[in-house]
Specification:
2 domains
Length: 191
Amino acid sequence: MKTKNHIRVIVNTRKMAIIGWLIMMLGLICIIVYKSFYLHLQIPENINLIIGLISLIICSSGATIFMYALILHSSSVIKQLRGQLKEMKLEKTERGFIRGDFTDKYDTVCSIQESSLATEDAIWFGVNEANPQIMVSDAIKLGIETTEKDGWCAYPVPKEVSFTTRMHLTQEMVKKLLPALQNFAETGELS
């Protein structure tokens, strides 16, 4: 699921940022210790230079990892927000039905569309494509090849298999759903 992938990226970048910060602090401690003992110990100049350079390299490596993690984290957050910022544009399909595409919080493409149902007014509403996934550990048990190491991975499904991904709602069904949706829009709660 994209949800799980976004969460995994955020968690991994936080871990990377913490590791980078710790390495940077280790480098700074090395520099402080080096400077403290430099005046008291009679260490040859070339050894002093090497110790100073190593401390500086450790510190700058940590800072680089830390900054890289922050950039990855912010780009992941921006990717999540991108779906929220798009406005739905209603257009006619080739068959003349009104349709609007949009993305949910996790950038999954969804749509709302007038139905061709002849007996009553109805709409199609929901996710456009199924995204079957399986835990990597289960995929390995089942002999499914994957490059992922943990979390979720794609579950291969034959082309002949069909998934129902959108709800087919009549006007009456939508009327019954509206109070709960309106309440959630106003309060952030269903009840």
